[in-house]
Design a protein that fits this description.
- The complex is a heterodimer of chains A (about 325) and B (about 260).
- Chain A is of the alpha/beta class and about 325 residues long.
- Chain A contains 8 helices and 18 strands.
- Chain A folds into 2 domains: about 180 residues, Rossmann fold, CATH 3.40.50; about 120 residues, Rossmann fold.
- In chain A, the strands form 3 sheets. Chain A has a 9-stranded mixed sheet, with helices on both faces. In chain A, strands 15-14-16-17-18 form a 5-stranded parallel sheet.
- Chain B folds into 2 domains: about 210 residues, Rossmann fold, CATH 3.40.50.620; about 25 residues, no CATH class.
- Helix content of chain B is about 30%, strand content about 25%.
- Chain B has 7 helices and 13 strands.
- Chain B is globular, with a radius of gyration of 21 Å.
- Classes of the chains: A alpha/beta (about 325), B alpha/beta (about 260).
- At the A-B interface, helix 3, helix 4, strand 7, strand 8 and strand 9 of A face helix 3, helix 4, strand 7, strand 9 and strand 12 of B.
């Protein structure tokens, strides 16, 4: 079954945007290498989803189906896909870089003697796969010179999900041989810790604060700026981990995804996990003392300087402008 | 429980990194180093489990001579002993190759639990723990904020995307990867630092572990990222820059 195989992820009966992006990335790779692009859906009762995929996919669509795959487990998913990919080795396997994929794809690749090239942001001639290093400060180019399938996962937002001309892909079913005893973990139902009372997703102006603020005592400085602008206050992960602001104000892969008209990043270096949560913002302003901080890669306007000087000056200027 | 914690030494968060002459990795001389953040949380989780249920905490770390300082830090915080896998080609090895080194060092210890951070702050593969589980043929759970020992094994809290969580039950022995922020990190006490000097650090080489330097995937070249947007840097004093920004917010972004 050579070619490029894209493994789509479903959550609560639907396929997320990042999976469609992975499909687009896989199709781009297939076109580049003159291979077919096929899709895999793993779970139980994925019939209607498969029809949705078939409308967007060009090659084959295979449902890897088993009652033991109804709830996600790393054991179940890696065993099932190992059997599927062993049956006839693919050239490339493309995943969306989700928390679920991070939990099982490295083990699946290892079982086949392979290594996942994770969190890919670009695919070049060769193919060469680009991913970020050192929290986004540098990019690394990776190759897979060996034989056997090459596994990659693509970063959220790195590829544009496009509906392709429907070719009426053919759907088939692969039934792995699984035994309940092989699944060693017992997953509970996903839950939220508390009702979210702050909806950053609908905020049009956001001022967000990161490690650069150094201490909880300094937060009023940033709160003042947010108040002056009429913006919601948000934060990067370390601020919420320290308990300086509640978790519900966290922007990033483990927090909220936002797309305001204005996002002011104060003392945020711009690790990938943060960027994926805010790079949809229409205008990004970065205030940081490090001119090489990755946040400047996505910023429209930047001020390189000490936030303890810049933020109070900005608050005053905003107040003056509003009078 | 006998708990092994795999820790990595990485460049300090604010360290200025330069690309080396070969263009394949960073210049390692004159860099400040620190314990990888999520590994520090894995160590904290291990020390807390030991405080509650007794047992032993063994740290294992791969890297050159300099890794010794991070190992000492872990011992000073309360780990009982350490295994140092002496190798200077970590950045050239892929995640499978590094996990093999760790797996071979861990196997003879027959631990009840193997903990590690979810991701390194330098290469950021985020795969070592999960591959380690596959190599050791143990069940695993990743991205955990909380670990509790139960009568039948472990009860863990896993982080999912966008503010969701999930509880998972799994038997021991197991491999767990720990997310940053689940608990508060301790500092080494003066007594701890003193006692660390007398604790055992066993050194082994990749050759002794029988793991050749192999890579299925190759890191070919590293480079400065290309800007996704053209950033307009507003120069001048804080006051001047602030005034220039307000002009932009008023007339171009139109949010004031």
């Amino acid at each position: 079954m050579t070619g490029v195989w894209i493994v789509l992820e479903q959550r609560e009966g639907s396929i997320g945007r990042i999976s469609w992006e992975a499909l687009a990335a896989g199709q781009q790779l297939a076109a580049q290498l003159n291979l077919t692009a096929n899709a895999v859906l793993i779970g139980s009762q994925t019939e209607s989803l498969a029809a949705e995929v078939a409308a967007r996919a060009s090659g084959k669509v295979v449902r890897v189906e088993h009652p033991l795959l109804a709830a996600y487990t790393a054991d179940g998913f890696s065993l099932a896909l190992e059997q599927f990919f062993r049956a006839d080795a693919p050239d490339y396997v493309v995943f969306p870089h989700t928390y679920q994929v991070r939990d099982y794809a490295p083990a699946l690749a290892a079982r086949l003697g392979q290594v996942l090239i994770g969190d890919v942001t670009g695919i070049g001639e060769g193919p060469v796969f680009t991913r970020q290093l050192l929290q986004g400060r540098l990019n690394g180019s990776y190759r897979h010179p060996g034989s056997g399938p090459c596994f990659i996962s693509v970063q959220s937002g790195a590829f544009r999900a496009e509906p392709v001309a429907p070719d009426a892909a053919e759907v088939s079913v692969f039934t792995p041989v699984l035994d309940a005893a092989q699944i060693r973990t017992k997953p509970g139902t996903p839950f939220r810790d508390s009702a979210q009372t702050v909806d950053l997703g609908s905020a049009s102006l956001i001022v967000s604060v990161g490690r650069g603020i150094k201490d909880a005592e300094n937060l009023p400085l940033v709160q003042d700026l947010a108040t002056a602008l009429g913006a919601e206050l948000a934060a990067s992960r370390p601020i919420c981990d320290n308990g300086w602001l509640p978790m519900e104000r966290q922007v990033g892969s483990s927090g909220q995804t936002v797309s305001p008209k204005l996002y002011v990043a104060v003392g945020i270096s711009g690790a990938i996990q943060h960027l994926v949560g805010m790079k949809g913002s229409q205008c990004v302003v970065a205030i940081n003392k490090d001119p090489d901080a990755p946040i400047f890669e996505v910023a429209d306007y930047g001020i390189v300087g000490d936030l303890f000087d810049v933020v109070p000056a900005l608050t005053e200027a905003v107040k003056a402008a509003k009078q | 429980m006998k708990i092994i914690v795999a820790i990595k030494q990485v460049p300090e968060r604010d360290a200025q990194v330069r690309i080396n002459a070969a263009g394949k990795w960073i210049e390692e001389t004159d860099l400040q180093w620190a314990m990888n953040e999520s590994d520090a949380y894995a160590l904290e989780e291990a020390l807390q489990l030991k405080e509650k249920g007794g047992g032993e905490v063994v740290v294992v770390s791969a890297g050159p001579e300099r890794v010794g300082s991070t190992i000492r830090e872990a011992l000073a915080k309360g780990a009982d002993r350490a295994i140092h896998i002496d190798c200077d080609d970590l950045a050239q090895r892929d995640a499978l190759s590094v996990a093999r080194l760790l797996a071979e060092a861990i196997k003879p210890e027959s631990p009840d639990l193997v903990l590690t951070g979810l991701q390194s702050d330098d290469l950021g593969y985020g795969q070592t723990g999960v591959i380690l589980a596959a190599l050791l043929e143990l069940p695993h759970a990743s991205l955990l904020l909380h670990v509790e020992q139960t009568s039948t094994g472990l009860h863990v809290k896993r982080e999912l995307e966008e503010g969701w969580f999930q509880n998972i039950e799994l038997p021991t022995p197991a491999v767990l990867t720990i997310q940053s922020g689940g608990s508060k990190l301790r500092y080494a006490t003066l007594m701890g630092i003193k006692r660390a000097k007398t604790k055992e650090v066993r050194r082994v080489t990749p050759a002794e572990l029988g793991v050749p330097p192999s890579a299925v995937v190759v890191l070919d070249r590293i480079a400065q990222p290309q800007k996704q947007k053209s950033t307009q840097i507003l120069p001048g004093s804080p006051k001047e820059a602030a005034a220039a920004l307000v002009e932009k917010l008023k007339f171009e972004v139109r949010v004031l």
